[in-house]
Design goal:
six-stranded parallel β-sheet, 2 domains, Rossmann fold
């Protein structure tokens, strides 16, 4: 049973209105501006259903977790936290900051921890008292649905879809995601200014957010930068990825990598270092020179990586095939669900 609350008015992330699984809506009070800075009314649900196991989202500001942490001593349920594990910017010096030390204390005082990726599990294994309590539910999208969309698009064909979308350039790059500063669109536009002089190439930007005006200005200054705004229809956004040569996102990469790779569109991004970019756990799916490129964190590094692939269609095709293979083997919904099954089996032993 999923226990959840309605998003606050004006939230940037849209909530799913129709749920086809058992769920309970909890009353909530927001304490701060962050989406998880809330405390929810969980007591009636605990009293009514007497759960054996409770899985909770975990962040320090999510006060509901701390309430569940205390109430377990009265209700006797096993408590599991579902979490990123550690902030990306702290990976090189894990658990050195006060914030992450508190997180580590929590991991050692709950019954199990479900993480978003294998690399984070490996990192935590050296720091927690009971590594057997660590599990991974690889963060992903509805890959079964994405595969159906891919097959539908493949029957139509790339050239026909290009005509539908009005693509006129020989090569096409795409950026799909929220337009945030941490995505480093500035590096993308700097790199593209040089790439545009060497190739017949279009850069398609899909999304909305705080950097929307920056994108609009860039599109006005270059006829080969096309801003499409946000596209929420999966079938339509998938078309842009299906016919593009590369998905380029210099900064923070998250679930857009899964969407892109499922459409056979290799991802080019900058490799994480001391100064960033600080990627989401989904960046772990990207393997350099196998299904994508992890380049130097600069416009020059981005420019060289994209140019190299555009000059090597065979390598690009191999990466496209490997992208689809990675999603099938590493990022399927079955893998995601299996992480929770393993957790429940461990606790029930």
């Amino acid at each position: 049973m999923v226990c959840h609350s309605r998003a606050r008015k004006g939230a940037s992330l849209k909530e799913q209105e129709v749920l086809d699984f058992p769920n309970v809506i909890l009353k909530r009070v927001y304490i701060g501006k962050a989406p998880t800075s809330m405390i929810q009314c969980v007591l009636p649900t605990l009293v009514k259903h007497k759960p054996e196991i409770v899985i909770s989202e975990f962040s320090l500001k999510y006060l509901t977790f701390w309430l569940l942490f205390v109430l377990r001593f009265f209700f006797g349920y096993k408590l599991v936290v579902w979490t990123h594990g550690i902030k990306s910017k702290e990976i090189l010096k894990p658990f050195s900051a006060l914030r992450s030390k508190i997180q580590l204390w929590v991991y050692n005082h709950v019954d199990a921890v479900v993480l978003y990726s294998e690399p984070i599990k490996k990192l935590l294994t050296d720091h927690v008292k009971n590594p057997e309590s660590l599990f991974v539910a690889n963060n992903t999208l509805d890959t079964q649905r994405l595969n159906e969309v891919y097959n539908q698009l493949e029957t139509i064909g790339r050239e026909q879809i290009k005509k539908q979308l009005g693509f006129s350039n020989k090569y096409n790059l795409v950026f799909i995601g929220r337009l945030l500063k941490r995505k480093r669109l500035d590096l993308l536009f700097e790199a593209f200014a040089v790439i545009d002089t060497k190739f017949d190439v279009g850069l398609h930007i899909i999304g909305d957010g705080q950097e929307e005006e920056v994108v609009k200005i860039a599109a006005e200054e270059s006829k080969n930068i096309i801003y499409h705004g946000p596209i929420h229809e999966l079938e339509l956004s998938s078309k842009y990825l299906f016919v593009s040569d590369l998905m380029v996102m210099p900064g923070y990469v998250g679930l857009s990598a899964v969407h892109s790779m499922a459409m056979g569109c290799p991802v080019v991004t900058c490799k994480q270092g001391v100064n960033g970019p600080y990627h989401g756990p989904e960046a772990a799916y990207i393997k350099n020179d196998v299904n994508g490129i992890l380049c130097d964190y600069s416009s020059e590094g981005l420019r060289d990586a994209v140019s190299k692939l555009m000059n090597d269609p065979e390598q690009q095709e191999r990466m496209s095939v490997n992208s689809r293979k990675t999603i099938k083997e590493k990022a399927s919904l079955e893998h995601f669900v299996d992480g929770f099954k393993q957790t429940l089996n461990y606790l029930r032993k």
